[in-house]
Amino acid sequence: MTTTPASGAPAGVERRRVTFPVMGMSCAACASRIQRQLVATPGVREAAVNFGTTKATVELDGAEPRTVMEAVREAGYDVGTDALSLAVTDLRSALDTSRLERAILAVRGVLGAVANPAAESVRVTYVPGFLDPRELEDAVAAAGFVLAVPVTEADPVERERLVREREVRDLAWKLVLAGVVAVAAMVASMPLMASEAVGSADLLARVLMPLNGVLRRGLPWLYAADPQSLKVGLFLATVPVMAWSGRGFYVSAWRGFQHRSADMNTLIGVGTAAAMLYSVVATFAPGVFTGAGLPADAYYEAVSSIIALILLGRLLESRAKGRTSEAMRRLLGLAPRTARALRDGAEVEIPAVAVVVGDIVLVRPGEKIPVDGVVRGGRTAVDESMLTGEPTPVAKAPGDEVVGATFNTTGAITVEATRVGRDTALAQIVRLVEEAQGSRAPVQRLADRIAGVFVPVVIAVAIAAFVIWFDFGPSPGPVYATVVLVSVLIIACPCAMGLATPTAIMVGAGRGAERGVLAKGGAALEAAAAVDVMILDKTGTVTEGHPAVTDVLVALEVVDRVAAGPPADGEAAVLQLAAAVERLSEHPLAAAIVRAAAERGLEPPEASGFRALEGRGATATIAGHTVAVGSATFLIELGVDVGPFTDAVDSLAARARTPVLVAVDGAPAGLIGLADPIKPSAVAAVRAFKAMGLEVLMVTGDIRKVAISVAGEVGIDEVESGMLPAGKVAVVKRLQAAGRRVAMVGDGINDAPALATADVGLAIGTGTDVAFEAADIALMRGDLTTAVTALELARRTMRTIRQNLFWAFAYNVVGIPIAAGVLYPVAGVLLSPVFASAAMAFSSVFVVTNSLRLRRFTPTFAT
Amino acid sequence: MTIAKAVVTVAGLVAIAWVLWYFLAPPPPARSGGERR
Questions:
Q1: Which of A297, A448, A537, A776 is the catalytic position?
Q2: ipTM score assigned to the predicted complex
Q3: Can the peptide bond before residue A547 be classed as cis, meaning omega within 30 degrees of 0?
Q4: How far is CA A83 from CA A106, A110, A125, A155, A368, in A?
Q5: Does the reported pTM lie above 0.90?
Q6: Does B5 touch chain A if contact means CB atoms closer than 8 Å?
Q7: What is the DSSP code string of A768-799?
Q8: What is the distance in angstroms between the Cα of B27 and the nearest Cα belonging to chain A?
Q9: Inter-chain contact B15–A463, Cβ cutoff 8 Å?
Q10: Which among A506, A494, A184 is positioned nearest to A315, based on CA atoms?
């Protein structure tokens, strides 16, 4: 979508280049037909129609967009349109509505506008390319309305976030209703069960008696109430739970049924519906049961509690999902909103989205570069850590390429835009994250997989039991058959199965949080438990992420000449001098030197006449002496004989240290070595990963020599160096293609795509927000051993989930035959639906208790 | 009663067979019209 005022147009006549989509082209001949039609239109200078991209580009010389659209339609095709919804604050009356619609319709490129006062929004249909978002914003403002969100931000990502928020709120309210009714129903059912179970000398009645006694003392009025009224009251409370809170399950179960799949929803739907149906009959036609000598029990509490528990699991899942789209918002938020462009020789501030290829933009120190481009004037250093992860700013001179959203540190530059909008490096990173999140297959839950077979089998068993009881059972056959059918469906109802995963994850995630591990949902832990390859980013993950002084070498006789007062030692004197000069510089290496001096309690002397040469070094005058600090090349240029330090410089470089020389009055005084130090925990963490059976790999945007040196120190054998964000993604994908389960630990924005692509991405504590959002697991500490803890926790949690699922199914495997009446011919025992529902509750308690054991999890690296 | 039992037996067996066939041995599902996600 581009709208370019072509330069050099005669005053008064507007010449603009516009690109818009064309619909209905089926061959290249169509394209040339439209092109001929467009060129023949008065006021159109040039036209090019591309069949491949289905887009037309025209240069308008006075023609109105409407004329152009008509020309396309005359040729037998149509102009592609798009629509967007804008939230408008204070849009109340019908009068407002028509005023707003008229204002928007007057904007060039707009085809339709429909305002909706109820939703306080307006839906705008427009031709992409013709519409300038700013004109639309201006028109709305001129009509006296305020847009809740700027047009440029009314993007799909934002919309998705709003949808997600609504979903979470919706689930939360449904859960509240179901939960309140479930608790009330459980309490109210106690007197019912007591009154009806006592006579039958049921085992269950004896189990529940103590609790019943407590309740009787606490709520005597409840026991005084008429059982029939209680049942009717429970029925009235349960109907909205089913109709509103549980509606989603029934809809999903029905959809699944249409697609021939049976899952948790089917179990929940069939189970709760059976319990409800049975309860309704017991409430309103109890004679059906009592006439056959059976208790007319109601199971309303089972209906509500099943729905409440399953909703809780869904709510937790939905909240975790919302965090992934948050990553996209943050990424997009990195790009500056506005740009200062040169238009007709004047400096104008325009929205960054309005910058077109070929525009010259001005970028001052301390600003972000708005688009990708080439430096045309000025010199500076640009912090490209967003792209490369390397913290050291890169020197830029005319002819060098710069990347949008990177940070201009020291000098003012002019940049010619080369890539804008969807083509910028940032947009590509966003797309990488987007693709990774979109392509990742939703983790198929073990419970669902088993349920796919389990559910049809249960339904079949229930029907079989019904038929057998009907044909061969005692009289009255239909009643016994129905009781058995419902018992089987209730005992098979997935209460424990529904709890197996969420409780383990809740406890595991809670324990993780105490240990600095924040997992975004069960899928993250599930993936983390299964990984067999661990990829570590270098900068900020294995290393501290910022340079520090590692070596100081001194030429004493030179230092002594300037040192004011007796220095503690030569090293201190060199640091002191260097810090005095570098204090005035903004280079990160300079900051490291100043920090090193401060850490040793050194007070740098006053310096004057500071001069910096970007990315190379600086000079200043201290107590009448000229002090130069910088690279060897810089000092040689200043005429300093660096001979005495040549060997030392080479040896530092070989150990991946950056050498910085200090010269006093043209004589070399000292040498400072800087490096990004390795985190103290890295070696132990790498050893732990290997002990867990993982293959450990390091990726970095840094050069090979440094990468190998760092990897060697921490014990990593495999290294991929010189990696840009896309390269890191490629490494992850290559391993995944080989069937490996990949975990990736990183901290930078540049790691975000790889974090999102990996089976499980772990963002380390020192990292950026974007990395955190793109990752599946956020580590709250900078310590790499937290990643070890995360994997240990994930493995423990998954083991607990598997145990839970095993026991939940085991209960069913034992319970279903009993519910079906297998023991009746042998021992005369028939499992009543009451016992079926109690067995279900017991399996739930078991599962919850097993999950709670996770609280005792202690990581190897306990801190 | 015998007739009722016979009917229920046949209907039950058909239902069981249908449930198992419908969910467990499906050919590629033919999507019902209008169902969009």
A1: A537
A2: 0.78
A3: no
A4: 16, 9, 4, 11, 31
A5: no
A6: yes
A7: -HHHHHHSSEEESSS-THHHHHHHHHHHHHHH
A8: 9
A9: yes
A10: A506
